[in-house]
Amino acid sequence: MNTLPALDLRGIRAGVSAMYDGADRASAQLRGAQLATILRLTPYAMLANVGSALAVLWAFRDPLPAGLLWWFAALLAVATVATLNWWQHRRRRLETASPRAAHRATRNAALLAGVWAVVPLVWFPQATAAQQILVATLFTGMLSAGTFMLAALPHAALAYAAVYTVAALGALLRTPGQDLIGVIGLITLYSPMVMLGALAGWRKSAALIASQKEAVRQERMLSVLLQDFEQHADEALWETGSGGHLQHLSPRLAELLGVTEDDARTLPLLALLERRAVEGFEVLQRALDDGAPFRELRLAVRRGDGARHLAFNGKRLLDERGRTLGWRGVIADITDKVANERQLRQLAHTDSLTGLANRFMLRDALSGALRQGRPGALLMVDLDHFKRVNDDLGHSAGDELLKCIAQRLRDSLRTGDMVARLGGDEFAVVMTHSGEAQEAAALADRLIDALQWPVDVQGRHLRVGASVGIALFDGAETGVDDVLVQADTALYAAKEDGRGRHAFYTPAMGEHSRRRVAVEEGLRHALLHEQLSLHWQPKVDIQRWTIVGAEALMRWDHPVLGRVNPAEFIPVAEQTGLIDDLGRWALQEACRTAAGPLAGVCISVNLSPAQLRDARFVNHVRDALRESGLNPAMLELEITESVLMEDVQGALDQLHALRGLGVRVALDDFGVGYSSLAYLRRFPFDTLKIDRAFVHEVLARKDARAIVQMIAQLAATLGMRTVCEGVETAQQLAVVAKAGCHEVQGYLVSPPKPLIELQKFRAAWQPHAPEMNTLH
Known about the structure:
Layout: H1 9-21, H2 25-59, H3 68-89, H4 99-123, H5 129-149, H6 154-174, H7 181-232, E1 235-240, H8 251-257, H9 261-266, H10 269-276, E2 277-279, H11 281-290, E3 294-303, E4 306-318, E5 324-333, H12 335-349, H13 359-371, E6 376-383, H14 386-393, H15 395-411, E7 418-423, E8 426-431, H16 437-452, E9 455-457, E10 460-462, E11 466-473, H17 480-496, E12 502-504, H18 507-526, E13 532-541, E14 546-558, E15 562-564, H19 566-576, H20 579-595, E16 602-606, H21 609-613, H22 617-628, E17 635-640, H23 641-646, H24 648-661, E18 664-670, H25 677-682, E19 687-690, H26 692-697, H27 702-717, E20 721-725, H28 730-739, E21 743-745, H29 755-763
Parallel strand pairs: 11-12, 14-16, 16-17, 17-18, 18-19, 19-20, 20-21
Antiparallel strand pairs: 1-5, 2-3, 3-4, 4-5, 6-8, 6-11, 7-8, 9-10, 13-14, 13-21, 14-15
């Protein structure tokens, strides 16, 4: 069942109160609009009042009651004043009105109703039946019409209706007889309905005024935005009529198209564009001929000595019958965007540092040569000592060196060859003018000769040299990746042969590559098939000659390849990302062993740089300690200085987190890298391990003995222990003991052993140091 919405009297009352007494501009504007509505009807209302008054005079003409003419004169005076007021303000646009003006209108309405109230109260009771009918009819019409006319001002409407209602009821009550009781009842019901209708009418008119005001505001805002858009945006609106001429030429549109008002009036848009178009005109013309909406159609037009690139969006304008009235759309200046796209394409195919082609361009060139069946050669070029330049002088010097090297490579090529930088200090040359080995060798020698001469960088004469690997291709069914692998394999062979030379790829080199693939594949299954194990090399305290620690060393027995040296499979694991799994297994196995069979021995586990860069590594160590139950103080993690060289702060943060777990940290191979004292200041290592290279030479070279002694003294000053690696003879032991080292590790004590053998070795250990002969 449908229900009619209730009249919200509370909301109306709040709105009326705000309109009459509100001091804000919105209320003032609403009062002004409503008063203007009343004022526009004033002359017609006054004319109707005077006419109605004349009808009353005519009805009571024989004879005229006493005072009726005075009443008419009073009404005429009120009507005259109201009309004169309207006349004075008829040309004035009433934008706002004060609360005082609204209340004055209420008083004027009550005054007019009061003048009319005299008629029924004074003359209706003694009037004839015909006169009473005329007054009743007139009064009923004026009550309804006047109240609705004044609905724009609710207080005035209510005051007007109330005065009329009181006057009518008073007249009826003063009239003798019982026949008018029903009329009294009707007026009692009818008058409130008229008042409620007036309030409802006010609410609708107020809402209409508010919506009209909002529409004007939005239209103005849209106009301002459109004007600002046309003046400042990169885009411009365009619209054509049925003849194709522009309907409006804004300054921005004129500037984008490079046309004038005269041009736009005399020529259609397509003719204007055709005169200046460089490319894209035919596509735009076809789109307009097709009649379908289009987006981002690009058009290049002449601009001075260059070109301006425009993007057109358009949609057809249709009438109610579907006939074309013209086109409307937006033109955007995308010159900067096109330039950026070209620059990005250039960057995507060019090395940003040297300006050479990059790896993508190299692959495209190599792929094109192979696809066309052209014989040629790929030369992989690697600088021999570039890392030393970066390490000694910094990356800025390294970058300058690479730029010079790139220019020398360009100068060494023949027309048709291409040189690319693959990354770091690695370059590649695609030789396509010949596929002869002799030609490729001559080019390789030319490149090596060009790069061996010193390069002036930051006031220094730097000599780097280069090695070259060559892979020939003859157009057979060879893939790009195959050629790249062959050239890379040949490059490694050239570097292993002594650097500064070139090497051709041979099938024998492929065996080395295939072994590496086999090692990589084997590593993926080694953990699952329990092919990995840990061997242990004990560490002995020199003074007490007791076993105080053991270093865990990973061993791998491959079912086909046999025993694979860690120096071979660890780098492969690091390059392929498998080192994380291997390192985590080694850590867990070492902790389990240290908590069980090797209880009481501090175990050392080597860390790869890749492991320490892993944000989850600290959690892995925590998990291994918790699962094994090992005391953290019995675990020592060994790192090399290369870990600190790449990301010092990140590595130090990880080390501090590890120390927070309670584990010990050792710096391995100290003395062969940077040996930076800054690392020792920023992170208090527990142990410094002196590299075996110094230990091997302590008997033959005084500088080696001095270095060992200096490191031992430095460690003692910083509160660290020292471990000498690679001690093999009693004489070496005597020297490092005299230097102040704390522990030794090497074949003099024991080679790395499986766990069972180490347990037997430990059980049979006698705490008596071998006889040491010292040097004098």
